[in-house]
Amino acid sequence: MKPTYESAVIATDGKKKIYQTSRVIEIFKLIVKPTNNAFYGSLIGVGDVCTDEDILNAVKAYANALNREAKLEQINKKKQEEDDLLQAYKESLIDIRDCLVNSNNGKVFLLPDNHILIGQYHSFVDLECLPDDVFELIEKHSTSLVDTFTLEKVSPLTASRIMELEDDNE
Q1: What's the Cα-to-Cα distance from 159 to each of 8, 32, 90, 138, 151, rounded to whole Å?
Q2: Which of 7, 33, 60, 72 is most exposed, with minimal Cβ within 10 Å?
Q3: Over the stretch 42-64, which tens digit does the pLDDT of each residue have?
Q4: Which residues of 78-106 are buried (b: 16+ CB within 10 A; e: fewer)?
Q5: Planar angle of CA 153, 138, 79, nearest 5 degrees
Q6: 96-137 confidence digits (pLDDT tens)
Q7: pLDDT band at 166 (very low <50, low <70, confident <90, very high)
Q8: At residue 64, what are phi and psi to the nearest 5 degrees?
Q9: Helices marked H in 3-159 — which ranges?
Q10: How far apart are CA 102 and CA 162, in angstroms?
């Protein structure tokens, strides 16, 4: 249903109609039941009276806001799907893969399958045998000579806190 603003006309200037802005907003609100304030905001900025052109611009602003909301909703939905997928991946690592827990700051680092660390407790120097990208990630998020690390299987407690190279790029 499309609103008609004839009852809001307060004057005519030749073929140009002058509308009472507040009445146009009321009519729009009754017919459209807007989900955002773009229409109102656009018209209120014009003043107490408006023209057909002003109303058209307000309708466009409202439509643009609806499009932005739809795009934002799509982006949020996609992000949620990615987050759910990442969480499912991390949960699939439980009791299968090893991780290092920084004892000082609690950060958790997933280790590659072929790591050669043995034993439960490690100093920063022990980690130099890890692949460069893993070592650099750990180095970036640690205080080199002060931090100690615990080698353990990924658990439900550590799964959600795993830091990987992909996380680091954000």
Answers
A1: 62, 47, 5, 17, 14
A2: 33
A3: 999 899 999 999 999 999 999 99
A4: eeeeeeeeeeeebeebeeebbbbbbeeee
A5: 80
A6: 999 999 998 999 999 998 899 999 999 988 998 999 999 999
A7: low
A8: -60, -40
A9: 21-32, 38-44, 52-92, 132-140, 156-159
A10: 11
Cα separation of 57 and 98, whole Å? 59
Please name the amino acid found at residue 168: D
Nearest-angstrom CA–CA distance, 158 and 152: 9
pTM of the model: 0.60
Q: How far is CA 115 from CA 7, 110, 130, 164, in A?
A: 77, 10, 6, 15
Q: Which amino acid is at 85?
A: L
Give the span between the Cα atoms of 50 and 20, in whole angstroms.
6
Starting from the edge strand earliest in sequence, which strands make up the sheet with 108-110, in order?
A: 121-123, 148-153, 98-102, 108-110, 162-163
How far apart (Å, rounded) are the C-alpha atoms in residues 36 and 103?
49
User: Exposed/middle/buried for 166, CB within 10 Å: 0-12, 13-18, 19+?
Assistant: exposed
User: Residue 111's CB: how many other CB atoms inside 10 A?
Assistant: 19
Three state DSSP letters for 125-166: HHHHHCCHHHHHHHHHCCCCCCCEEEEEECCHHHHCCEECHH
